[in-house]
């Protein structure tokens, strides 16, 4: 039984897709896409040289174009803050007097322990304060 060239290219594409899933290296996915393109050329009746050239051209083009974009996106910090980073800079309401040694505030609908950034300052119940940072489970306010 003689297997057509396009089937071999698809087998190669699947073979390149397996390490992509196991190692999360996107280059394998780009090589796999090149193998699919070569399978299309083979199915359309292209010769072996054309198949190999299409495989190489598509693979190299994808690596040259997609990899720098992916690297740029990976190195950028997210535009949104989450977790305790999202609480920095928010306003809170003092529930119990806050000074350098402690107190309570209502921040983002939750009650937090808090302390004043400046140990000499104190904030009375009902005052608005700004959260400067989160230190463990304590909000540092001013």
The largest β sheet comes out as: 5 strands, mixed, barrel
Strand order of the largest sheet: 1-2-3-5-4
Count the beta strands.
5
Look at the structure and give the mean pLDDT: 90
Number of helices: 3
What does this structure look like?
The chain contains three helices and five strands, in the order αααβββββ. With 142 residues, the protein is α+β, with helices and mostly antiparallel strands. It has a five-stranded mixed β-barrel. α1 packs antiparallel against α2 and α2 (26-43) runs antiparallel to α3.
Q: What's this model, at a glance?
A:
By secondary structure, this protein is α+β, with helices and mostly antiparallel strands.
List keywords for this structure.
142 residues, alpha+beta, 5-stranded mixed barrel, 3 helices, 46% helix, rod-shaped
Task: Give a topology summary.
Blueprint: H1 5-23, H2 26-43, H3 48-75, E1 91-99, E2 102-107, E3 110-116, E4 128-135, E5 138-141
Parallel strand pairs: 3-5
Antiparallel strand pairs: 1-2, 1-4, 2-3, 4-5
Helix pairs in contact: 1-2, 2-3
